[in-house]
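Anyone? Bumping this.
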Amino acid sequence: MNPIEFLQQQLKEISKSFPNVHIKYAFNSVIATHIVELLPLSEYQNNDALDDAWIPLSFQFRQQFPEEEISFVSSDSSLSIESSTFEFNKPSIQCFGDISAIYSQISQVEINYTFPKHMPIGAIAIGASIDAVLKSPKQDIEKETDNNYYQAAA
Amino acid sequence: MPTPLLEKSKQSMMAAEMLIKEHNFSSTVSRAYYSCFQYILHILFEKLGYNHDDLKAQPRTGTHSQAQYLLESTLYQKNRKDYKWFQEKLPAFKQDRVIADYYGEALNRDFAHDAINKANAIINTLKQYY
């Protein structure tokens, strides 16, 4: 069993005991270290039972694989994982990601919008006299061809 | 009287502080990291009774990883919270040092200043227990 297979097996067991903890794994090639990320940060920082699970695993791993390095981190670390090799208890709904995607499109519309430089012909200025209002061209209201529903409702 | 490795650790930190003033940011990161690592060796040799042979005897990938492993084994017994902090902070700092030494990315003053702070934080944390 190689180090990654060992970790995958052990972390799977931990994930069963802590179903609310998202576990990610990746190998950091810059420092040649196996990285295990435990999420959310509050669980990593405050869950003593979780500590009891991963700290012995960290020592066991290094005893079993003396040439390997390992570090357990969370989202606040510069070692946190962007692209994982495997993960357990991955949240099924990425709510904030979806909302961000929707709002980013709206924001783009707002960014692209430019105010018109000229008033359209026929528009009435605010504060115009009643004569000006009466002289302004009438706006045709399109007749609805399919207003049967409304008539029926009335 | 300071031991050789403690003295080297202090000198490395002084060098880091001089280098950042000279805008040598990559070298600042490197010296700050080694100040920290020399302090770890000082603890292992002077406080825990290890020697250089102990670092070579184990089949770990290198002196740094073996030193980290030996220190963590005792730090865990002294304070679990600080062990958790240390086992993440030292590899993260090592990554900064590797990037500073071997990668072509230009580093700024903040990165270098952060490295000095990290080294001081690690050294001051270890001072509480050794």
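Late reply, but here is one note on the structure posted above: The radius of gyration of chain A is 31 Å.
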